Amino acid sequence: MADNQPDTMETRPDRPKRQAPAKIDRRETAPPEPKRPSFVRRHPFWVLFGIVVLAALLVAAWFVWKIYFYPYESTDDAFVDARSFSVAAKVSGYVADVPVTDNQHVKAGDVILRIEPRDYQIALDQANGQVEVAKASIDSASAQIEAANASVDVARAQQNSANAALQYAQQEANRQQQLVKSGSGSVQSVQQATATLQQDQAGLAQMQANVTSALKNKSVAEAQKSSALASLKQAQAQAEEAQQNLNYTTIIAVQPGRIVHLTGAKGQFIDAGQAIATFVPDEVWITANFKETQLTDMRPDQPVDVTIDAYPDHTLHGKVASVQPGSGTAFSLLPAENATGNYVKVTQRVPVKIIVDKWPADVAIGPGMSVVPTVTVRPRS
Q: Which residues form the Multidrug resistance protein MdtA-like barrel-sandwich hybrid domain (predicted)?
């Protein structure tokens, strides 16, 4: 039975297959959900407040570290300093020789410049001649004094002799008068004794005058000797001055250093006091102008590290020598006048002197070159 039944699936004509209805994507047709705003947009005030607080904390932390923990103080307002001075001629004349050149290093005693010395040598010879003349005058006055002493001695001896003769004549006159009174003598003898007495009195007066004249001659000779001694001192002073002027014709270095801006040239006429060069001594230091607020812990002998702007590969080491007792403006040519109604407080700069342990020998370092010193004002933790 089952085999004789027709197969309906085989005899049924083909029908078009019904397609299943398409599925609708609800996600595409559904409206989009609203996007949630970010935290920054939802809380802008608190975000801004947090940023401000964080920045304030960072700034406060930096200041605390800088003030209480940072052990250094530095400034770029610093330079190499030295007591430079002008080399000038003491006397005038023509330049005979200039054995140095610009930027040359010289030692103490080295010749910088020579002036033609002929005129000054002549002046020295003349002064020495005046010294010899004064010495001769002294010798002559000394001889006159000795002669005056001899004349005084002779006059005094003659005075003594006249005095003795006068005494004898006085005694003889008295004796003749006694003889006349007794009738044993004659009037002629009395007259003769009286005349002798008068002659001896006159002779004694003359001898006393000779002694006085000899003493006056001695005083004149002594005065001449004093004048000659004064002339000798004057001549010696002139000779010493001439010798100094002769020495001034050679200008030498009194300390080691460098010759800078040399203007003297051979054959040039220079006047007394005219500058011929600038001398920079080897002794240089650093003048650092720190703010007054940086000096709280700065003391002498604190270590310093120095960097030279021209030679940044050279790091120098030194120490603080001293701190100027006052700001830089207080010692300037025109100090500030703060007694005004529109006063504005400005942090002042105070010069600090720094000594370098050893300057580099392979580079040229001079006054005015910029440096950056860093002072260790507190021990490193």
A: 85-277
Q: In this model, does residue 145 exceed pLDDT 80?
A: no
Which of 88, 110, 56, 94 is closest to 253 using CA atoms?
Answer: 110
Distance of CA 281 to the CA centre of its chain: 10
- In this model, does residue 358 exceed pLDDT 80? yes
- List of residues 6+ apart from 341 with CB closer than 8 A: none
The confidence band for 29, taking pLDDT boundaries of 50, 70 and 90, is low
Instruction: Encode the chain in three state secondary structure.
Output: CCCCCCCHHHHCCCCCCCCCCCCCCHHHHCCCCCCCCCHHHHCHHHHHHHHHHHHHHHHHHHHHHHHHHCCEEECCCEEEEECCEEEECCCCEEEEECCCCCCCEECCCCEEEEECCHHHHHHHHHHHHHHHHHHHHHHHHHHHHHHHHHHHHHHHHHHHHHHHHHHHHHHHHHHHHHHHHHCCCCHHHHHHHHHHHHHHHHHHHHHHHHHHHHHHHHHHHHHHHHHHHHHHHHHHHHHHHHHHHHHHCEEECCCCEEEECCCCCCCCEECCCCEEEEEEECCEEEEEEEEHHHCCCCCCCCEEEEEECCCCCCEEEEEEEEECCCCCHHHCCCCCCCCCCCCCCCCCEEEEEEEECCCCCCCCCCCCCEEEEEEECCCCC
Please indicate, yes or no, whether residues 222 and 304 belong to a single structural domain of this protein. no
CATH number at 315 reads 2.40.30.170
Q: Is 80 exceeded by the pLDDT of residue 207?
A: no
What letters, b where the CB count within 10 A reaches 16 and e where it falls short, cover 107-116? eeeeebbbbe
pLDDT tens-digit map of 316-348: 999 999 999 988 888 887 777 777 777 788 889
Distance CA 245, CA 116 (A): 11
Q: What pairing do the DSSP bridges indicate for beta strands 284-291 and 349-356?
A: antiparallel
User: What is the model's pTM?
Assistant: 0.62
Same structural domain, 296 and 338: yes
Claim to verify: residue 155 and residue 223 sit in the same structural domain: yes
